[in-house]
Amino acid sequence: MKTYTTTITSANILEVEAGTTGPCGGDSGHGGRAILRIADMAGTDIDVTWDADKKELVIELGGDCELHTFTCALKFAVEVYEAQTKIKQLEDRLSGLTADDPFGEF
Questions:
Q1: N or C: which end of the chain has fewer CB within 10 A?
Q2: H and E: helices and strands count for the chain
Q3: Cα 86–chain centre separation
Q4: Angle at CA 25, nearest 5°, toward 6 and 1?
């Protein structure tokens, strides 16, 4: 899976990495995969907890800049997921084209 990384800088600095295979036609056993990694590179008031029993992730931020950089990080990830999904869908459509029917369903 290809991932993309960017750094978001304000009074704090976050690094975000996101990527997906795009949809692959199934659930966790056979479907697509996605990754989101957010790293504090400097000065971020962030607390992350994982409750395995509830299967719940809680991300708590302190500060206006943290809200801003975190929002930017999430927007970046969504843009990556949407772009990679569109690319995957186009590749899937193109792979179905043949010499007898070069335009497929276009």
A1: C
A2: 1, 5
A3: 13
A4: 30
Give the per-residue pLDDT at 73: 98
User: What is the model's pTM?
Assistant: 0.85
**Spatial separation of the C-alpha atoms in residues 103 and 56, rounded to whole Å:** 46
Cβ of 3: how many Cβ atoms within 10 Å? 14
Report pLDDT digits (tens) over 31-87: 899 999 999 999 999 999 999 999 999 999 999 999 999 999 999 999 999 999 999
**What is the three-class DSSP state of 65?**
helix
Buried b or exposed e, range 32-41, using 16+ CB within 10 angstroms: bebebebeee
pLDDT band (50, 70, 90) for residue 103? low
Helix (H, G, I), strand (E, B) or coil at 62: coil
